[in-house]
Design a protein that fits this description.
Aldehyde Oxidoreductase, domain 3, 30 strands, Aldehyde Oxidoreductase, domain 4, 766 residues, 19 helices, 3 domains, homodimer, alpha+beta, 7-stranded mixed beta sheet, 5-stranded mixed beta sheet
Chain lengths: 766, 766
């Protein structure tokens, strides 16, 4: 008699299922896909920041041997794309920023295509340009889009409570202004697409999109192909981080080239192009004004932000949706007002980027919190704890915190890092030129999607074949975040199998069921719930079938280790494969196929931006310890203590990877990364000049997870995709302040900036 | 108000969905697939027909630059394969026929692999060989497999009634012996496979197999990889006709090469190899003895057959299962006995081939029927009609003819071809050296699979996405027979869409649900029913959802032209895509996914080979009109009238294609095709010497379908895959007899054979 003890995969460290294929080079990225007869596409971008196009001469390019098509706006329907629908794929009349597309070529090799692009002659008439929101708002500023003569495509206004009342209740009011800069995703896999029309007019796209179903819908309008004629296949994606959430001009351009040449066309960016012409994190200027009572209670928070929208409108323009959540609900603020102005400039435009505005918002709020704490002479930890939410609250913005680990995160991060003692000690003054400092910051983010469409759900189809091999066809996409592995874990757990018995199919829109896409940290929660429920249905089916076969009540049975076992004793009664074969071949002649569409219990916000937009929320606290060399200006992040309310750990390795990656990305944002845009031009489009954090700069990272067991989460889990990148930069800035007494209102903390600021502070006697 | 009239796709001529991709060259066959790092496999086959292997020297082959592996039996587990499990992939001790595999190479190109194969030195000791079943049964004949010292791996014995009684009731008894020859499939796509182990030990096979799920199971045992670690992807298949129903040695050999080299390996036959080493239709000698009463009633039928099994046992050995159906049940024969002996020889071995023994059985039965008719001085048509079954009968073998169009086929074929008049006229004698003749023959075949496994079912998963695009994931495979199109028709019909709205996914074992495979003319019936039922569930779901939305009773609604309409008036009420989007985005947040496993109402035969093995049976009558040039021996088939009971026509174009293809194959079998095997060696391994019927030899084909509306068939349909090839050769032989008065007992009717036979008949005064 074999006994199989109850065990669980949940919380175990499971290596990512796709890791071996990635480390062996087996994984096929877009760049590895060759279709028969495939041509190579290349885009001519403008070299002007704002200009009228007078003429485009493609004669020489067309005449080049090996060139199959040269297209300009004239050859396309000209339907504008992007979230703001203000950006035609190819520009016919006018260019508005340095990344604007003017013409495109399909040729037999990338080299020929590049040569053809060089042969295209464009005559321009330069127009006056504007490079800051403030300038763009000035009377008489150049108008960038005629539809918006004031250069303002969007404003957002949110409020709750009564600011005047809040002011009256305040003992102290603090006002700060913060300015955030351009950074970009730096995906290892550059942007690209392959477009292929078959002889029946069906368009297959090999695309890195994060939202295959919405991609079909949105592209359809632009390329004039019905959505049901578009198939989206995702090759292995080399990072996305939000950069692949919108449609960008290169995508329809590649499709137009395929249409023009009746050949498959691959269009892949060079690394330089990736820096010049992929989305950025949006630069924002934020002014915060908050009141506090003597006892440390926040009274009101008033925020106004000014967003540099660049020359066109992509998702970057909508980040205020997320920013306002942090303003209104990261801490209790009885009165809150938030006003945003999104302004066109002739700068590059910005898109979605991990954290989606929340890095900027949290940088401002959590820097500001330290100043408020100081104003009431409270320790930063105590001040935050005093204002932190608790489980069960509904915030004035309508967010329902079914679970809320913020206080536990604050406490644990403080304890693990010895924050209170060190903060006091470092502030008391240090000898020598290298000063130590410690700082903290917390975060609030959606933890299970954000209902910005009428559904935020994900579909699953599950089949188990006759050797107990499970195939899970999920709507959700793997973009490197580890969703495949988590989904396999949920399914394997439910069916008493190992993860290697589960194959996750997630890359073909014709096969997988519908899903919104990868955004808003939703995959573990939404796709996980969907897979879990499909697996649970299969489990029920199997136990129901096993019951009569084993002369047992299905409720007394369990699935463990590939067997049907007695729930109480663990006695293995029947191999699962045998049960499935019996069911299929002998008993009922059936196969085990189930499906599920999981819709999270969230709602769309109302016109006032209120409503429980996510079924759950993620919280976290980071403590950063730094060394500031006051002679060189070098800020070294020594250690980060990262504590996250993750609901429940599903894959220990996966969650650690996400947290480490987010911390590193945040450290880069805080200390090194800067896409230098000068008069609309990107000045450092290479990894030599755009400085990512590399191994030597990565601090020690001490990770802890608070498990609040979300009642709606799959096995209690919340999303963790974005959270770890959000609150690291204010923790660092707060630590630098703790070390030096000097506060930084802008990032990144490059040695030059730090040194200059420390010196001028010294001069001004701060 | 838009009115959409009720219309149907059933019976319409629908071009095959995969036709454009095939005619444009878009379709990717096995030969077109390149995997990164792929090597090329090549097999060394023996040049002996029966020999002991003394030594194999692979030194020189291994030393050749570009060679990655050279393997022999020693490097493999040596588990024997094939239906008889008597055939190890690589032979270590002994070769038994000319196609036997001795060693294999994987190299960087096909050329290097071929050169390496030439460098392998094998020492043999020849053994006495035997090339006919009769010789192999003789006392002291060489023993080919030690497990069968009498050289008989299988016998089959069937009987019903009492032959002695039948003899007593007979007025006339006729006995004939027929001998049938080797032919082979001549698939345009030669045999081949690609094997690829990934870094996690998962084996992906790009295989042309007709039975992906059983292939996994059967291979597993041979290659020692668990079935759940095997994924079978079918590229576009260039014809199969049964040749890809078993596992053949090249398949595990390619896998062993991939294992040895840790690289993907492609092994594709040359055309010569395809002739030398792919399965054949099995040669059979049949002796029929039948009795008839004066009134034309058949009394008994006694049959004994001798099968040349070749050196190993593949599916060819089991064709008696099908042959006996024709003996026992094509016409009413109250008493029947059938005895088969399957005999090993040192000839090539045979496999499954469209018709599966029934071409041989029907050739014999229907030649014999004409002789019986003549014996009682009845017209062949009248004689057949007198003995034909009717709808509703259960034959003594247990076959239940829920529908039976045999009489209608006989009548219609006779009427269309003016058979009775012409037969009489031609027999009366003709002037000149070119004689006209007309002949007829009928057939019985399974029309909806054959339950030779415990299930004969097929699974379907169906999803409809938000633009009313339907994906049908079917277990069934497209091997050129048009199943994709028929499945799309059933689904489109049920959902009121066009076939172009339906995508059929049918090539990946990880995605599609279980299916037995393509055999026994089962796909339209079984996979069709499965798809139809899955679509019906989706239809119900959609109408149930539409009802409340439209304030209507779902039963008063219909789906037509992509809309929900009022059943009675056809008034278009709601676009289907809109309904699905509403259901998904607004109402219930659900997606439309359904699944089905359809098991046909057939049973496995008992030990006496009795039982209703198929849910339905196909019938047909062919009339052939020929011209025999008595000076050259050339038989020209002028016209074939092909009438089939197809249950119901689903795709008019598809069914015509199947019937035309079957007739052409049958004409080839009757008049031209012959795999010449001399002392175990294939003498004509090329299309120059193996003469297929080509365009100039194709007769006029007059097709008619009898629609008996099968109660279990999807929309009333039966399978048509094999039937059209079955009864053409006896119709031709009967026509030649009608023209010349000379009967042929062997095929093919080559000019040499015809001339010689006519001359010797003349000499003997026949």
């Amino acid at each position: 008699m074999t006994i199989i003890e109850k065990s669980t995969l949940i919380g175990k460290p499971i290596p990512k299922l796709d890791a071996p294929s990635k480390v062996t080079g087996e994984a096929r990225y877009l760049q590895d896909i060759e279709l028969p007869g495939m041509l190579h596409g290349k885009i001519l971008r403008t070299d002007r920041v704002h200009a009228r196009i007078l003429s485009i001469d493609t004669t020489a390019a067309k005449a080049l041997r090996g060139v199959h098509a040269v297209i300009t706006a004239e050859d396309t329907p000209g339907v504008p794309l992007g979230h703001g629908r203000d950006n035609p794929p190819l520009k016919g009349d006018r260019v508005r920023c340095i990344r604007d597309e003017v013409a495109a070529v399909a040729a037999e090799s990338e080299e020929i295509a590049a040569e053809a692009v060089r042969l295209i002659k464009v005559e321009y008439e330069d127009l006056p340009a504007v490079f800051s929101p403030a300038d763009a708002l000035k009377e008489g500023a150049p108008v960038i889009h005629d539809a918006h003569p004031n250069n303002i495509p969007f404003t957002f206004n949110y409020d709750h409570g009564d600011i005047a009342k809040g002011e009256r209740e305040s003992d102290t009011i603090v006002e700060d202004t913060f300015r955030l800069h351009f950074v970009t995703h730096c995906c290892m896999g550059v942007s690209g697409i392959i477009a292929n029309f078959d002889s029946q007019g069906m368009l297959t796209l090999y695309s890195q999109t994060q939202m295959p179903f919405l991609f079909k819908r949105d592209l359809s309008r632009i390329i004039e192909v019905p959505p049901e004629k578009i198939r989206v296949i995702q090759p292995v994606i080399g990072g996305a981080f939000g950069s692949k959430l919108d449609i960008y001009p290169f995508e329809p351009i590649c499709i137009f080239l395929a249409k023009a040449t009746r050949r498959p066309v691959r269009l892949v960016y060079t690394r330089e192009e990736e820096f010049l012409a992929s989305p950025t994190r949006q630069p924002v200027e934020l002014t915060l004004r908050s009141g506090v009572r003597k006892d440390g209670t926040l009274t009101f928070r008033e925020v106004s932000t000014l967003h540099d929208n660049g020359g066109h409108t992509s998702w970057g323009a909508t980040t205020p949706f997320v920013m306002m959540q942090t303003f209104s609900s990261l801490y209790r603020a009885e009165h809150c007002r938030y006003q945003t102005t999104v302004v066109y400039t002739n700068n590059p435009y910005s898109g979605a980027f991990r954290g989606y505005g929340n890095l900027q918002a949290t940088f401002a709020v959590e820097s500001h919190m330290d100043k408020l704490a100081a104003a009431v002479e409270m320790n930063p930890f105590e001040f935050r704890l005093h204002n932190a939410q608790e489980c069960g609250e509904t915030t004035p913005q309508g967010m329902i915190f079914q679970t809320c680990g913020l206080r536990d995160c604050l406490q644990l991060a403080t304890d693990k890092s010895d924050f209170v003692r060190k903060h006091k000690e470092y502030a008391a003054g240090q000898q020598g030129p290298v000063k130590r400092g410690i700082g903290m910051a917390s975060l609030l983010h959606v933890g299970g999607g954000a209902k910005i469409y009428h559904t935020d759900g994900c579909g699953t189809i599950l089949k188990i074949d006759d050797y107990a091999k499970v195939t899970v066809m999920t709507g959700s996409s793997e973009i490197g975040q580890g969703s495949e592995t988590v989904i396999a874990q949920f399914v394997a757990e439910e069916l008493g199998l190992g993860v290697s018995q589960v194959e996750v199919i997630n890359n073909d829109s014709e096969i997988r069921p519908w899903d919104v896409g990868v955004h808003a940290s939703r995959t573990t929660f939404v796709a996980g719930n969907s897979a879990l429920r499909a697996a649970r249905k299969a489990r029920q089916k199997l136990l129901q079938a096993a019951g009569p076969k084993l002369d047992a009540n299905p409720e007394d049975l369990d699935l463990r280790g590939g067997h049907v076992v007695r729930e109480d004793t663990g006695e293995a009664l029947l191999e699962l494969g045998k049960l499935i074969r019996a069911l299929h071949f002998r008993d009922k002649h059936e196969i085990v196929v189930t499906s599920e569409y999981y819709e999270p219990p969230s709602v769309m916000q109302d016109k006032e931006f209120k409503g429980n937009v996510s079924p759950t929320y993620a919280f976290g606290t980071h403590v950063a310890e730094v060394e500031v060399d006051t002679q060189t200006g070098i800020v070294r992040v020594v250690k980060v203590t990262a504590v996250h309310d993750v609901g429940r750990v599903i894959n220990k390795l996966g969650i650690e990877g996400q947290i480490e990656g987010g911390v590193v990305m945040g450290v880069g944002y805080a200390t090194r990364e800067n896409l230098v845009v000068d008069a609309g031009r990107v000045m450092n489009p290479s990894f030599r000049d755009y400085k990512l954090v590399t191994a030597p700069e990565i601090p020690e990272i001490d990770i802890a997870c608070v498990e609040t067991m979300d009642p709606y989460g799959p096995a209690g889990a919340k999303g963790i995709g974005e959270a770890p990148s959000i609150c690291i930069s204010p923790a660092i800035v707060n630590a630098v302040h703790n070390a030096t007494g000097v506060r930084f209102y802008e990032l990144p903390l490059t040695p030059e900036k730090v040194l200059r600021t420390l010196q001028s502070a010294q001069e001004s006697g701060e």
